[in-house]
Write a structure and sequence with these properties.
Layout: H1 3-19, H2 23-36, H3 42-53, H4 57-70, H5 75-87, H6 91-103, H7 109-118, H8 124-134, H9 137-150, H10 154-167, H11 173-185, H12 189-200, H13 204-207, E1 233-240, E2 243-250, E3 256-263, E4 268-277, E5 287-294, E6 300-302, E7 306-307, E8 312-317, E9 324-331, E10 334-343
Antiparallel strand pairs: 1-2, 2-10, 3-9, 4-8, 4-10, 5-6, 5-7, 5-9
Helix pairs in contact: 1-2, 1-3, 2-3, 3-4, 4-5, 5-6, 5-7, 6-7, 6-8, 8-10, 9-11, 10-12, 11-12
Length: 361
């Protein structure tokens, strides 16, 4: 067998031996690999694994250092370096290796778990954000989507967003929209508002303390009303004497969602007032409001749809299990206009600028 193929065979045989728990056999193949191919990182990396399995810690560290100097593109070597750095509390070294893995496109569960651990270490997030700034937009988008979906604490996430924003490094706000909305819905409303305002700017609809409807020409923010649409349903924001009103027509004899919006209401009772009209200038009987309750874990509980025909309804937010909510405006068969929804004075959509204060899930 030619030497080049023999060397590759040793690498595969070493991996198989380690998978079977045979450290001695794996080390024997790893040493033969190093003898035939001393420069690539694969040999020292396999030596590191075998020595660690065999309890030879000091020798494993020496082999790891050699592998790390040669193997910036070797996943296993970099993971070992990250794990070793986290083990001794070296957040800076761990972050440098992890940003290299992110830039190389690694998005596996182990890399994500180690990233989460690294961000809790002294110096870890500061060093990592420097790498984020220098990376391309896709890496930044992937990181912020992951961090938001995972529900990283606002104390970690907001400073990262602030530093990226100050560097003027770009992100794709459209790609982040759903994740920011979900983060806020899970009880991190102020942090979500802060991250969005820093990375993507702000608009009046997202910042207002009322529930004004958004014109379709306005850019959508994560905490504006959104209009999901449905078959045989028409929903159109139109200018009126009330500002922006929703004109709707539902041709189906089933209830459909006209609009929905994430909010963060304090526990307790709340009152919603609606100004709307149908063909007879009265509030349509088929117009209803549903309140969706979200736990910090993302579990959802829905109230039964509440009729808005009398213009005022009350509902209650539970004390402990509902840090984030979604208001869902629905209508059955028919048409009409919804001019405005107003919450009582105790219920306010938090301002984006107040990201450092307030209730977190």
């Amino acid at each position: 067998m030619p030497d080049v193929f023999r060397a590759y065979a040793y690498e595969n045989l070493a991996h198989e031996a380690y998978m079977q728990g045979d450290a001695q056999l794996g080390l024997a193949y790893a040493r033969k690999l190093v003898a035939r191919r001393p420069y690539p990182s694969a040999g020292p990396a396999l030596l590191t694994q075998g020595l660690a399995m065999d309890g030879q810690s000091e020798a494993a560290i020496e082999a790891l250092i050699v592998a790390a100097t040669r193997g910036w593109r070797d996943f296993y070597t970099q993971i070992l370096m990250v794990q070793s750095s986290i083990g001794v509390g070296d957040g800076v070294t761990a972050s440098q290796r992890l940003i290299a893995l992110w830039r190389a496109g690694m998005r596996d569960d182990l890399t994500m778990s180690l990233t989460s651990q690294m961000l809790q270490l002294p110096g870890g997030s500061e060093a990592f954000v420097e790498g984020l700034v220098e990376a391309d937009d896709k890496v930044r988008n992937d990181f912020f989507r992951w961090a938001l979906d995972k529900g990283l604490p606002g104390a970690v996430l907001v400073p990262l967003g602030e530093k990226v924003a100050r560097s003027q490094a770009g992100v794709d706000c459209g790609a982040l929209l759903s994740s920011v909305r979900g983060y806020g819905r899970g009880g991190h409303f102020r942090s979500a508002s802060g991250v969005w305002a820093m990375l993507c700017g702000d608009n009046d609809a997202s910042r207002s303390s009322d529930l004004a409807f958004r014109s379709k020409s306005d850019p959508e923010g994560p905490f504006d009303w959104s209009y999901p649409g449905a078959p045989r349903l028409e929903v159109e924001p139109v200018q009126s004497g009330e500002g922006v009103s929703l004109r709707y027509e539902n041709a189906e004899h089933v209830r459909a969602i006209l609009a929905r919006r994430v909010v963060a209401l304090a526990p307790g009772k709340h009152t919603v007032r609606v100004r709307a009209e149908g063909r007879d200038a009265q509030i349509p009987a088929a117009l209803t409001l549903q309140v969706r309750c979200y736990s910090a874990a993302g579990e959802r509980q829905d109230t039964a749809p509440i009729s808005l025909r009398h213009g005022t309804v009350q509902f209650e937010v539970p004390e402990d299990s509902c840090p984030g909510q979604e208001l869902v405006l629905m209508a059955g068969f028919g048409s009409g206009y919804v001019h405005a929804l107003e919450l009582d004075g105790s219920a306010r959509v938090p301002e984006a600028q107040s990201a450092s204060k307030g209730r977190e899930g």
